[in-house]
Amino acid sequence: PVEKLHTTMSGRMSGKSKMDFETYVQRRYLKQILYEANHRFLEMSGGQFYLQLKENEQAGQKSNEGLDFMVYSTVTGTSRDIATLSGGESFMAALCLALGLADVVKRAAGSIHLDMMFVDEGFGSLDDHSRQQAVQMLVELTGRENGGRMIGIISHVAELKQQIGHILSVTKTETGSRISWKD
C-alpha cells in the first residue's frame, strides 16, 4: 500500500497521468491566478484571448508537463500553445498573469500588501490600441478603489511619456547619468 501511494504521488503509475502531487497542487493555485488574469487579458485583447492550463489528460502525458499554458482564441474557437502568441500578445499575457498573481496573493494572505510593482519594457511590442489598453489598466490599479498601488514603468517608448502623469527620467551623460522628475 505505501509503495502504491508513493508511485501515485510521484506520478509514476503505468498507463496513468505522469503528474506528481506537487504539480497537481500547483495547478490548483495556478487556476486561481488564471481566473484573475483572464479578466484583464480578455479586456486587453479585445475579447479575443484567454489563457488556460492544459487539461489533466494532456498535461500528464509527459513528465513535468502539468503547468503548461494554452491560449484559447474566441475568434477561432480553438486552443493552441501559448508560444504562438505574438510579442505584444505575450507581453499582455505576462502582465495579466503578474497582476493575477498579485490579486491571489493579496486575497490569500490578507496581511501581505503588494502596493508597488515595476513593469520592465514590453510596451514597444504593442500596437497603439493595445498600449492604450495596458496603460489604462495600470492607471486603474493606481486608483483608490484598487488599493492605490504604485506602478513603475521602465520603457524607452516615447509615446508612453504622453500617457503617464509622473515621470522619473534617467538620461545618460558623459559623466554618468542624470535624473529628473516630470509631472
Task: Briefly summarize what is shown.
With 183 residues, the chain is an alpha+beta fold. The protein contains six helices and seven strands; from the N terminus they run ααβαββαβαβαββ.
What does this entry look like structurally?
This protein has 183 residues and is α+β, with helices and mostly antiparallel strands. The chain is 42% helix and 21% strand. It contains six helices and seven strands. The chain has helices spanning 2-9, 21-44, 56-59, 87-108, 128-141, 160-163; strands spanning 49-53, 69-73, 78-81, 116-120, 150-154, 167-173, 176-182. The strands form three sheets. It has a three-stranded antiparallel β-sheet with strand order 1-2-3. The chain has a two-stranded parallel ribbon with strand order 4-5. It has a two-stranded antiparallel ribbon with strand order 6-7. Strand 6 (167-173) and strand 7 form a beta hairpin. The mean pLDDT is 82.
**CA-atom Rg in angstroms:** 20 Å
Which segments are poorly predicted (pLDDT under 50) over 5 or more consecutive residues?
Answer: none
| Alpha carbon gap, first and last residue | 67 Å
* Beta fraction: 15-25%
Structural class, please?
A: alpha+beta
Can you write the helix and strand succession as a string?
HHEHEEHEHEHEE
